[in-house]
Amino acid sequence: MDMKPVNAGKLRAIGFDAAARVLRVEFDDRKVVEYAGVPQETWRHLSTSGSMWSYFRDNIEDEYAARRVK
Question: pTM of whole model > 0.85?
Fold first, then answer.
């Protein structure tokens, strides 16, 4: 999965697998978490948001099943 470097709040990189509907997020502490069942539209909103950290907290963090991968 290609990761897009970002500098938004605690987010340092984000990536999305459209076929699997999996969002991968890397945090500033190097923790990597995958969120399952994320729609393409949610990815589009996150990746283009001017307030990426707020969008993540409000619309993703507690809304999708999370699995720590690193």
Answer: yes
Give yes or no for a contact between 37 and 21, defined as CB atoms under 8 angstroms apart. yes
12-55 tens-digit pLDDT: 999 999 999 999 999 999 999 999 999 999 999 999 999 999 99
Q: What are phi and psi of 67, to 5 degrees?
A: -140, 125
Distances (CA, A) of 52 to 9, 17, 21, 44, 61: 8, 18, 19, 11, 12
- Token reading at 60: 């993703």
Through-space distance between the first and last CA atoms of the chain, rounded to whole angstroms:
15
* C-beta separation of 27 from 8 below 8 A: no
